[in-house]
Sequence to fold (348 residues):
Amino acid sequence: MASLLTNLKQLSNANGVSGDEHAVRQIVIDLIKDHVDELRVDTIGNILAVKRARGTAKLRVMLDAHLDEIGFMIFGANGDGSLKFRAVGGIDDRILPGKAVLVGPDRIPGVIGVKPIHLLHGETGVVKIEDLAIDIGAASESEANSAVTVGQTATFATEFRTWNGAASGKALDDRAGCAVLIELLRGPRLPVDILAAFTVQEEVGLRGAQVAAHAFDPDAAVAIDATPANDLPPTIEQDVSPNTRLGHGPAIYVMTRRDLSDPRLVKHFVATGDAERIPYQIRQPGGGGTNAGGIIPARSGVPTISVSVPTRYLHSPASLIYLKDVRSTVALVRESAARLTPQMLQRK
Ligand SMILES: [Zn+2]
Fold:
């Protein structure tokens, strides 16, 4: 368990905005390289690793987790030395003002500028990202330009913390999934070949997963991600029943706006959870999708299921998970993959 937590901390604190996943990729490679039979980085930056089966492989099962996180891209410097920036991936403008960020490969500290309350004259409402700027303390445009270049990325500066079985961090979507997949690769061989894909550019359109699924051409796939848990006290959102809840185990998807989990895999994962007494929950259908949407149509089609760690405050500076849900996700994916047979995937 210590290593799962240590890995999660290291992964969450690393910066890896979509398209700029280098630092996270290095951490993952170091953690898995002695535990897999094949390892390569493909042309767009996915890590593709194979852990062969114990004995003759019954199936080739792809397990996916995305390396990238939501964040920002620097668009240029303003005359006053502040930085213009835009979002990479889905970020709500409401949460931006006053947040600490880290800019560029050197992790230069910055703050998303906001007018202090003392100077406000009754202005309210959401300030659009176009009207915000990142302040790195530079005194002039040229000073800003010498520190940061256009196209560099920035992330929230939140440090990973853990207390009382909970953990919070800036990039648990999807470093929680990465930690699960690393744990599976560092564990014992299974009766199936594990084709592990740590994929890039999920947050901007599931791009890495499409390439990885094409390369692996697997018999079945599991997208391991973090999913929103809208389980706040009922006084806050009385009319919405929680889509997932913290502490109730991995969330098995049946349908999102973008993809359908293969019903045979849903049945199998549910049966495995019941048989092995691993907690799980069915995610309420609807809402945003996962890399499953990129994997399902690959090649001649891949039966795919999404399994996610329930996560509060997704795509914000600090999301929050329960560590026991991460452990249950490892167990459910491992046991379900181990028990998967070609017969289960045969069309009758
Ligand atoms: Zn995600």
In short: DSSP finds eight helices and 17 strands in the chain. The pocket of zinc ion is lined by residues 66, 173-174, 202, 225-226 (CB under 6 Å). The chain has a mean pLDDT of 93. The domain at 2-69+170-345 is CATH 3.40.630.10 (Aminopeptidase).
